[in-house]
Here is the input.
Amino acid sequence: MFKLLLSVFLFFVFLLSFFAASFLDNSRNYKIETEELLPVKINRSYLTIINYNTLIFAGDVMIGRSVQTQALNNGSVHYPFLKTREFLSSADITFVNLENPIISDCPIHNTGFIFCAKADFAKAIKEAGIDVVSLANNHTMNYGTKGLAETRKILDETGIRYTGVGEIEIIVSNGVKFGFLGFDKSQIPKPVLTQAEKELISEANIKVDVLIVSMHWGVEYQDYANSGQKDLAKEIVDLGADVIIGHHPHVVQDYEEIAGVPVFYSLGNFVFDQMWSEKTKKGKLVKIVFENTQIVGIKEYNTYIEKVGQPIIVSDATLN
Here is the structure.
């Protein structure tokens, strides 16, 4: 009897050990699979989820005038972005300043300062990986209120977000709420915000986790930000901006940090047809990596408009 009881006992011990081992193995495999599937990093010390987001910013994008002509002559509206769309598409959010209206009856022309692009180019912008554009610049109204209304309609239909029309544009990416605002203060030596613009920035800061302000400012072809830009940048930071991206001078300007906020005074031209100057063919792409709402990395990439309206990404050595 004793031997029988001992045998039964040993049998149950064996079964218990077998199921325990199986359970532990399954638990370990499940844990690994879960971590691989999660698009976030888990800080187990504090049991908080860390979300990462990569944002890319480019300079002035003008796909009218001779850029449009060059693209159509090459048989593709995608022509301006053929050499950069893979990079632009690599970010969670990509932002540019759109320097022309998009209208269905845009005439073909290569000169002058009235810009526009045909409606088909909106698809090229979208498929290049560009998610949001600023319309706050000195060419958005080249075709009046009707042209602006049509531009907004085409962007809406294409799925491209936009700001710079008196409203904040909010994009939620990986659990973080990013807000975009745009203002046009171009060719004004001492730019100032209206009371309504100040309130818009302050109110936007409350609505989002990260606030990005696009400024169309400064004076064309000046290599350095003027004192008016710098004073306004300080005010915008005080109102709640987390990143300031500048456009309009058509050349790259300086960079600084104000109270920890990165300020890029001008990223220069990205897609343009100003081939008469080396400086106007050069630009910057900026990649900013966020860990939740904190910036953990900033990297700049040089661009060069090798052919009319078609930039490439180059090294410092190439530019020298």
Q: What stands out?
A: The chain has two domains: 2-37, 51-319. Residues 2-37 form the longest helix (36 residues). The radius of gyration is 26 Å.
